[in-house]
Amino acid sequence: MPSSPHLAALQPAYGTGTLADVMPTALAALGVPTRNGGAVLHRAELDGVRRVAVLLLDGFGYHLLGQAAQASATVGAIHHGEIGTLTPITATVPSSTPISLASLACGTPPGVHGIIGFTVRVPDTGDLVTHIRWDGAPDPETWQPEPTAFEQASADGVACTVVSNGVFRATGLTRAIYRGADWLPAISPREVAEGAVAALARGDRSLVYAYLPDVDTAGHFHGIGSPEWLEAVAEVAEAIDGILSGLPKDAALLLTADHGMVNVTERLHVDQRPDLLHGVEAIAGDGRMRYLYAAPGAIEDVRQAWTGAVGGRAELIGRDEAIDRGWFGPKVTESSRERIGDLLVVCRDTFAVVGVEGEPPHVARLIGQHGGLTAAEMAIPLWSYRR
């Protein structure tokens, strides 16, 4: 049994409330017909709005709100239901940034948009693509062909803007998931808030997506609840306050996150276990959910070796079983299926698999991690506020 209820597994709530439903909710509020479907959440609260800002705070999980309230009166008021409307929804799977951002921006589960792992193997070439550092092949528009929420909104006359660090503007991930939006560079929480408010004023209807990574970064390097983490919460809360203070009367703010986080206390270092590489052609994913690509005929040998190594700290399951469990959504395209490992190492509690070839050395030392199925990683907030 997990040591905390927040470490129990939480399945993605496709069709009733996941990150993939946030943009369909925004589009519905703006009267935009969507190709991708999706559930519409907080419908009554958004009735009649003509401008929507979606603020995503990286790593700001639902079960972290109580701790985060220590650093911000606004976060405390959100957590206690004193302002706006707060609902827990779930991330998509794996609960990591590129998968989540793609699910948000496209309004579809990973099984459809195909950005289905932090790192995956490209079926045609055998190369690994790390979506967060994507530069070059595969071609982003081909790899992720689904229409984005911004393409759908702009086609309907909505002014669409992404407010984020300009360094991300030309990356493969941006080309794959933010097509259809103009880019407004901003780094600090104050800049992001000012940019979001300015972008909301564009056109007769507007959709603004704003992103801040600070809480996630602090959690990775210093841990959840650390002084550095609380300082990061206080800083990003300034963005919430700034947007609220400038929110037009016909606008709404949707606040959400891409995932939560756990403080890792136990690690399996693959670079210290060469026996685990026998029959394994590539290891991808991230520390909390690894993808193992096995050599032909070696799947069962790999399964046995890795099961012995992880014991009860992780579950080893096959690709088809993960798909059958609905982790990637009710539909998984053939191209998406081919990108998933033959075996998945799904970490439980506060365990991680690190020391994988090709990853920067500091990744193995990260304290806060995510990607798994615990409630601490999967539960995220959806908070709406309007004038």
TrEMBL record:
The lineage of its organism: Bacteria, Bacillati, Actinomycetota, Actinomycetes, Glycomycetales. PANTHER family: BIS(5'-ADENOSYL)-TRIPHOSPHATASE, ECTONUCLEOTIDE PYROPHOSPHATASE/PHOSPHODIESTERASE. Gene3D superfamilies: Alkaline Phosphatase, subunit A. This is Type I phosphodiesterase / nucleotide pyrophosphatase. Pfam families: Phosphodiest. Transmembrane segments: none annotated. GO terms for molecular function: hydrolase activity. InterPro entries: Alkaline_phosphatase_core_sf, Phosphodiest/P_Trfase. It comes from the Bacteria.
